[in-house]
Amino acid sequence: MNLIQGKVWRFGNDVDTDLIIPARYLNTSDPQELATHCMEDADPTFSDKVQPSDIIVAGKNFGCGSSREHAPIAIKAAGVTCVIAASFARIFYRNSINIGLPILESPQASQAISEGDQVEIDLSSGQIKDLTTGKVFQAEKFPPFMQELIAAGGLIEYVKKQVGTDV
Question: How many other CB atoms are there within 10 angstroms of residue 137's CB atom?
Fold first, then answer.
């Protein structure tokens, strides 16, 4: 899963975890239920419109607020395959990698890519190509270990494969 391609959904700066998945839905940990409420306070129709392989592009400080793992789980379960932002809250960044949701920091891509654009991302190199405009951006690529975590589907799946168990 080194190459990702999808349609862009745009959000602004300081998108906090309560905007990603409102606290009123935290009484469940079912990923599919969380997906139905993903981004609903920012765009009530988001979960109806988002398609598997779509990409979120946002401004600075994406995922700020509380440290709930529900936020990246909701995004991933909604079908989003990558989030590109100018910057991420650190705990959101780690939670995303731990569940196998690739996220890339690129202030240039964050500013230049528009909603509806088709984007191709090479996770092995960190290259982001806006197929709509032809512009190419560079994000810092993931170190090999983090690439393995993402490819495995997250930390738990990675550990299961390492120890050879289906626990």
Answer: 21
Going residue by residue through the chain (167 aa), what tens digit of pLDDT does each one get?
589 999 999 999 999 999 999 999 999 889 999 999 999 999 999 999 999 999 999 999 999 998 889 999 999 999 999 999 999 999 999 999 999 999 999 999 999 999 999 999 999 999 999 999 999 999 988 899 888 999 999 998 999 988 886 65
The answer to whether residues 21 and 47 touch, using CB atoms and an 8 Å cutoff, is: no
Secondary structure of residue 24 in the 3-state scheme: helix
Q: Which amino acid is at 128?
A: I
Report the length, in residues, of the chain: 167
Q: What is the Cα–Cα distance from 131 to 121, expressed in whole angstroms?
A: 10
CA distance 133 to 115: 12
* Torsion, CA 99, CA 88, CA 143, CA 3, rounded to 10: 70
